[in-house]
Amino acid sequence: MSARIAIVNPISLLGQELREGLERHGDLWSEVRLLTTDPEAVGTVTEAAGAAALVEAYETDSLRGVDLVFVCDWSSRLEGLLDDRSTETTVVVVAPEQAPAGGVAVVAGINLDLAEPGGVLISPHPSVVAVAHLTSPLTSFGLQEAVAHVVQPASMKGQEGLDELFEQTRSILSFAEQIPQEVFGGQQAFNLLPLDLSTQELVSQLHSVLGEEQKLALKIVQGGVFHSLSANVFARLAQDPGTDGLQDAFDDYPQTDRVSEPDLLGPITAAAREEILVGSVEPAPGLPGAYWIWGVMDNLTRGGATNALEIAAAAITAGR
């Protein structure tokens, strides 16, 4: 039996990717409801899985009869949603900076077996997804520690972030005096800025995906690029496989694709791609068994909607 699905806050960039992605999983669902907590979005006519759809206001009974609900743009005001649903309704929270308490972080391809129907499942922040996939192939070599530095794009701030970065770029290039700063608080174009985001919860999600025994650290900064994030990962291994051995590990890993020209790999290359692209894999001088790994990933596809859709497909299939 096909599932009845809802998307809460479907007008965001992530919501758009989800709506388009549902078409690829048409055998899993029979109905899609679009719901919003934003009064200004109520009544919006859009598309879901290739068909016209109307966005309706989220009410306490909106999830009646729904088998699975995707939640974009999670915030504390949505905590009541977990109480409104039936215990049989699966909730998939997509790419949150702060996740609901008690949710289970799932990264497809690593711990998809935890996507149980009726649960609260977290499709983690894109940085968690990227770092999990860049370190998971290393665990067979005895991963002793991993430190990841991630540069996130403007699209992590939604359409407002893209628009402001565009306007800032145009203002600078046209020598205009006014540079919009409402989203980023300063000049983001051609710039890197510190990000006011605690990574404690994100590292906790990484541990739940990769294992509590792993020593992991994560730092995220805001970059002046439009789409796709970049990750530079330092990894120390107990058994040194050599550069060729590490490259083979990434070649054999389904979610990564090693590029032929690593010196030219940047975030733009990953835009609209489903896999994590791996560039340079280099030994850290003077540190035996330690390596630097460079990777890029589209935060809206593999880091967002694609991971969430694969979680949903696993939960729906398990519930049949």
Give the termini separation.
7 Å
Integer tally of domains: 2
* CATH homologous superfamily identity of the largest domain: Dihydrodipicolinate Reductase, domain 2
Shape: globular
| Radius of gyration computed on alpha carbons | 20 Å
Which consecutive residue ranges, at least 5 long each, have pLDDT under 50? none
CATH fold annotation of the largest domain: Dihydrodipicolinate Reductase, domain 2
Range of strand content: 25-35%
CATH level-two architecture of the largest domain: 2-Layer Sandwich
What is the CATH C level class of the largest domain, in words?
Answer: Alpha Beta
What is the share of helical residues?
A: 25-40%
The spatial strand order of the largest sheet comes to 3-4-2-1-5-6-8-7
Can you summarize the main beta sheet?
8 strands, mixed
Write a brief caption for the model:
By secondary structure, this protein is of the alpha/beta class.
Write a structural description.
The chain is an alpha/beta fold and 320 residues long. It folds into two domains: 3-124 and 304-318, Rossmann fold (3-Layer(aba) Sandwich), CATH 3.40.50; 129-298, Dihydrodipicolinate Reductase, domain 2, CATH 3.30.360. The protein has helices spanning 13-21, 79-84, 126-135, 158-173, 200-210, 242-252, 267-270, 301-318; strands at residues 3-8, 29-36, 45-48, 51-57, 68-71, 90-94, 104-105, 120-123, 143-152, 192-194, 216-223, 229-237, 256-258, 276-283, 290-297. It has an eight-stranded mixed sheet with strand order 3-4-2-1-5-6-8-7. Strands 10-11-9-12-15-14-13 form a seven-stranded mixed sheet. Helix 3 crosses helix 5 (200-210) and helix 3 packs across helix 8 (301-318). The chain is globular, with a radius of gyration of 20 Å.
